[in-house]
Write a structure and sequence with these properties.
With 96 residues, the protein is of the alpha+beta class. A 5-stranded antiparallel sheet has the order 1-5-4-3-2.
């Protein structure tokens, strides 16, 4: 079971969702020092991400983004703030 679960439906289509996924990977690597691996399929992108204290998966499809992450002990105390920031950023992207 994940500590962090975020699901957002959208109507962007797969091409635009992939662009957002690619941008997310760049940001995760640069800003949060995550190690990311991307598996791109016909109907979805699956990004496995990891760093000390955090590991999870980000899935994007033509109609949804979903993130599940397991947080280490030190990050769990910040879970509400982490979730709030991720949701805020994702909502801003989807509203643009």
């Amino acid at each position: 079971m994940s500590d962090l679960h975020i699901l957002r439906q959208h109507t962007l289509g797969l091409e635009k969702a992939r662009k957002i996924t690619d941008d997310w990977i760049v940001s995760a690597k640069k800003d949060y020092r995550m190690t990311c691996s991307l598996e791109r399929n016909d109907d979805q992108d699956v990004v496995q991400f990891k760093r000390s204290g955090v590991e999870g998966v980000f899935i994007s499809t033509a109609d949804k983004f979903e993130m599940n992450a397991k947080l280490g002990f030190l990050f769990k105390s910040f879970l509400p703030k982490i979730k709030e920031q991720i949701e805020k950023n994702l909502d801003a992207i989807l509203d643009a």
